[in-house]
Amino acid sequence: MSRSDWKPQREGNVPVYRQIADHIKEKIASGQWPVGSRLPSQRVLARDFGVNRSSVVTALEELAAEGILEGRVGSGTRVVNDTWSLLPSLPPDWSSMVDAGIHSPNLSMIRKINEEEFTPRMIRLGTGELSPEWYPRESMGRVLQRVSRKIVSLGYEEPKGLLPLRQEISRYLASIGITAAPSSILVVSGALQALQLISLGLLEKGSTILLEKPSYLFSIRVFQSAGMKLTGFPFRREGLRMDRVRHARASLYYTIPSFHNPTGALMSEERRRELLASCERERLPLIEDDVYRELSLDGPVPPPLKARDSKGTVLYLGSLSKVLAPGLRIGWVVGPEPVIDRLADIKMQTDYGSSTLSQWVAAEWLAEGSYRAHVERVRKELRKRRADADRILRKYWGDWADWELPAGGFYIWVRFRKPLPLHRLFEQALRRGVLLNPGSLYDPGDRSHLRLSYAYAPRREWERGVRIVADLLRDFF
Amino acid sequence: MSRSDWKPQREGNVPVYRQIADHIKEKIASGQWPVGSRLPSQRVLARDFGVNRSSVVTALEELAAEGILEGRVGSGTRVVNDTWSLLPSLPPDWSSMVDAGIHSPNLSMIRKINEEEFTPRMIRLGTGELSPEWYPRESMGRVLQRVSRKIVSLGYEEPKGLLPLRQEISRYLASIGITAAPSSILVVSGALQALQLISLGLLEKGSTILLEKPSYLFSIRVFQSAGMKLTGFPFRREGLRMDRVRHARASLYYTIPSFHNPTGALMSEERRRELLASCERERLPLIEDDVYRELSLDGPVPPPLKARDSKGTVLYLGSLSKVLAPGLRIGWVVGPEPVIDRLADIKMQTDYGSSTLSQWVAAEWLAEGSYRAHVERVRKELRKRRADADRILRKYWGDWADWELPAGGFYIWVRFRKPLPLHRLFEQALRRGVLLNPGSLYDPGDRSHLRLSYAYAPRREWERGVRIVADLLRDFF
Ligand SMILES: Cc1ncc(COP(=O)(O)O)c(C=O)c1O
Ligand SMILES: Cc1ncc(COP(=O)(O)O)c(C=O)c1O
After folding, report:
1. Are A332 and A397 contained in the same domain?
2. Are B331 and B397 contained in the same domain?
3. Distance A194 CA to ligand 1 centre (A)
4. What spacing in Å lies between the alpha carbon of A289 and ligand 1's midpoint?
5. To 5 degrees, how large is the angle CA B218–CA B220–CA B224?
6. How many domains does chain A have?
7. One Pfam family name from the record (chains A, B) (predicted)?
């Protein structure tokens, strides 16, 4: 159960513990905490209510005395009764349903990260997102104004998405060498949703997906939840070798050729050619996840693999999340029309299309010049941050770790000179207010990397975070 | 493959058929129509390109002569080669992948409807959506302006959705008798997505879902695609009887108590009490899909079942789609916190949350008074439309069909006095430019109903549509 925004009142003449007991009763009476569910720990309740732990303890004891709660050492406090109901009966067995569902839960560390990101003052050293400081508030204001004049209704949209947006995406793709008519483009709610649709729409249960190791794909559950297997090949700067691939009998090859998550690597032009040629030879479909393409910091990026794809081998993914704003939830998939048709049909079945409002805003951004200007500004800022990060790391972690600076994107893949208990490091850092992304999220066997991102936290915070972690690291070395 | 927006140029000196042939070559060369894929029919290509069929035939013949296309009577034209590539090789076997995916395709009639809705000048007699004329353009303009001042960044959001929106939803729910803290609420991209999350998150494969027959749920594939079974009980005005339910060993009960889709029925207060009590007794979780609640046309609606739910038996669904704008893609699920936590986790895994922009706009609408004013205006218009529809139906279909006017919502469930070949009627009407929603979409065995909606098409169009269908009906009676 998560953070509540209720707080007891200090001024009135009802004692705080009494207010807490009443609040919990109401949670139970309204079915929000049904009989059988477990309460958050005393520590968490005290934090959320903003009170001393002793007030929580008093309230819980009172409710236990009334027969409403039951506490057991080790397993926490449970709701056992709702005495005010006349016909005492049990609620549905939600907890076994929650466990029974088809889709696997997120990795517990990812769940923790998702939650802790919203703890105030947390220093986020690994967050894969642009700093909120760079949000282009004024341009967005102008875009919203223009868009509100253009929109004459916000109905359910065409299966593939708003046509004006698909036309703009088609034009943008042409600028990076990809020929794709609007009918070969599906608008999605971020590139993540594209992966989900591919998983549900194109693969049989038990299919194998090849990928680089480490990879972003190991940190999410989309494919595994649908019963797919991930087979990773060690990532060598240049991607992975096809000779070892042939034996894996895979259904799909997933790659992030530009500013790889988490390593930051940029695949060379030759390697791209080779990879595409091999996949063509093997008739192996390829997902090219290119969401970081625009964030090059040291000059031009080789053309996408998709630009050379004359056979329809590549499904190409793009997104506005990493350059403009993840909160728009706008991305795209590009591929052979029959495949796009199939994915569009499943998209209609899962959410009837992405927010039309977001789609209009995205179209307007792509259409007008200020998008280019925004990208340039972001790149400039990222270049500064990358240099700062390098300096800071050398100063505090230089004795224990190595890294290469990436040519673009957000990430530095820091390698410690010996294996570390990453989970422990994560927990300790969290207690000191620093959120880390351990390498094990991106490669289950990893014990010696952290994914840092220089994009999110402001320079000072970043330095403070690195210093705090240095204090912890000292004990491990 | 769907509508293209490319058109040949009339002015130049390249003949039209030549332009078409070149365009098709480019589609193939860029992998958009890979080797092995099937072209749209000559009729459809001619329509999409805006040319005579003879120009299409000439172009296809030329490409066949070049060995690029191959036509076979009955099975259409296929891409067989891309002669310009040096190493001729086959693309991935997409067509078998498209067939292999886990998620079932939409019902073909639904796919057809999704597509034809965007054919210009189509008269949509059954569309479950407010008329675009009623889109509150000015209020939305003001909301967007206010919102653009409030938004200071558009990052990834908390798993359960934007807190200010959840607070507004919590306040709105209180106004209809439901107690739910923001932590018991999950924001979703429309109520449809809530169903998808429940299907992936709470049910084992092979679970049975009980529902009214007919029901909206039969027209979508969310549960079936995840391997669930739907068991419908005939719908009698008042919902369905619990005695017959006990034997079905179901995992979930799905109901639309207010202005049911497709029948328009409103469940009485007594029946609601009974239903909830029975589900509590059976410990059977209940989904209350209440997306039409605000659209009452004849006075107050009984409180939601959720308002009486002290055990946490009910998952409650709401949405802004039917009252404000489906294009916002904003809805909500309310339930016991551990269940909401689980659904939020899966939501993060599928799309990292709904559009933050849409969430801000939704919060602003709910917070300010103009939402109420908008709802009142919509109700007034719907009342007029309902009366018009009744008059028009009596005039044109009175000899062949019966119906009851609903007390709210959009739908009239028209029953013909004898069974009809609904699929044929659908096809014939479509050819005359009228889109229908046959009863078989909502109950696979139905042969005598149409779901009409008085909400979408303007009065004149509606009348024209009904008249056109009357001409067709005459032949069946
Ligand atoms: C490689 C990669 N692909 C896809 C995504 C998903 O981005 P979105 O769904 O916001 O477009 C991310 C975000 O972390 C990513 O790193
Ligand atoms: C009963 C019912 N539930 C849910 C939905 C889905 O609405 P949305 O996803 O737009 O909120 C509809 C729309 O047709 C409906 O009729």
Report:
1. no
2. no
3. 10
4. 8
5. 80
6. 3
7. Aminotran_1_2
- Residue B72 CB neighbours (<10 A): 8
**Average pLDDT taken over every residue of chain A:** 91
Distance from the Cα of residue B17 to its chain's centroid: 39
Q: Nearest chain A residue to B149 by CA: give it.
A: A141
Q: Please, which residues have CB within 8 angstroms of residue B32's CB and are 6 or more apart in sequence?
A: A179, A180, A181, A183, A184, A312, A336, A337
User: What is the 3-class SS of A271-323, one letter each residue?
Assistant: HHHHHHHHHHHHCCCEEEECCCHHHECCCCCCCCHHHHCCCCCEEEEEECCCC
User: Where a domain ends, among A337, A368, A399?
Assistant: A368
Give yes or no: residues B305 and B160 share one domain.
yes
Interchain pair B190, A326: CB under 8 A = no
Point out the domain boundary residue: B342, B368, B394.
Answer: B368
Mean pLDDT: which of A287-296, A369-378, B232-241 is highest?
Answer: A287-296
Residue B353 is part of a domain; what is its CATH number? 3.40.640.10
Examine the domain organization and report whether A382 and A352 are in the same domain. no
- For residue A339, give the chain B residue with the closest CA: B98
Alpha-carbon distance of B185 to B170, in angstroms, equals: 8
Beta-bridge mates of residue B332: B187, B318
Whose tokens are 């998808």? That residue is B196
Lowest mean pLDDT among A72-86, A375-389, B222-236, B255-269: A72-86
Would B127 be classed as within a structural domain? no
Residue A43 lies in a domain: yes
Asked whether the beta carbons of residue A222 and residue B350 sit closer than 8 angstroms, the reply is: yes
A346/B154 CB distance under 8 A: no
Does residue B88 surpass a pLDDT of 70? no
Same domain, B160 and B210: yes
Interval B432-474: pLDDT, tens: 999 999 999 999 999 999 999 999 999 999 999 999 999 999 9
Counting ligand 1 atoms within 8 A of each CB, the residue from A319, A329, A442 with the most, and so the one to mutate, is A319
pLDDT at A149 over 80: yes
Least confident of A149-153, B66-70, B302-306: B66-70
The stretch B227-236 carries a mean pLDDT of 83
In a domain? residue A121? no
B216 touches ligand 2 (CB under 6 Å): yes
A34, A101, A178 member nearest B202 (Cβ): A101
- Tell me the shortest Cα–Cα distance from A382 to chain B, in angstroms: 17
Residues B167 and B256 in one domain: yes
Report the pLDDT value the prediction gives residue A235, as an integer from 0 to 100.
67
B422: confidence class by pLDDT, cuts 50, 70, 90: very high
Pick from A64, A85, A20, A23: nearest CA to B310 = A85
Q: Do B1 and A163 touch (CB under 8 A)?
A: no
Helix (H) or strand (E) holding A25: helix A16-29
Nearest C-alpha of chain B: how many angstroms from A447? 24
A128 lines ligand 1 (CB under 6 A): yes
Which chain B residues are closer than 8 Å to A184 by Cβ?
32
Q: Which atom of ligand 1 is nearest to the CA of A195?
A: 4
Q: Are residues B299 and B163 in the same domain?
A: yes
What is the ipTM for the molecules in this complex? 0.90
- B30–A2: do the CB atoms touch at under 8 Å? no
Which chain A residues are within 8 Å of B330, Cβ to Cβ? 355
Give residue B238's pLDDT band: very low, low, confident or very high (50, 70, 90): low
Does the pLDDT value for residue A469 go beyond 90?
yes
Q: What are phi and psi of A213, to 5 degrees?
A: -125, 120
CATH at residue B391: 3.90.1150.10
Q: Is the CB of B199 under 6 A from ligand 2?
A: no
Helical H segments across A314-440, by residue range? 337-351, 356-367, 370-397, 422-431
For residue B86, what pLDDT is reported?
A: 43
Distance A195 CA to ligand 1 centre (A): 10
Residue B235, CA distances (Å) to B213, B238, B303 in order: 5, 7, 21
Q: Which of B291, B329, B333, B358 to mutate to test the pocket of ligand 2 (most atoms within 8 A of CB)?
A: B291
Task: Residue B38: give the domain boundaries.
Answer: 16-85
Residues B277 and B165 in one domain: yes
Amino acid at B167: Q
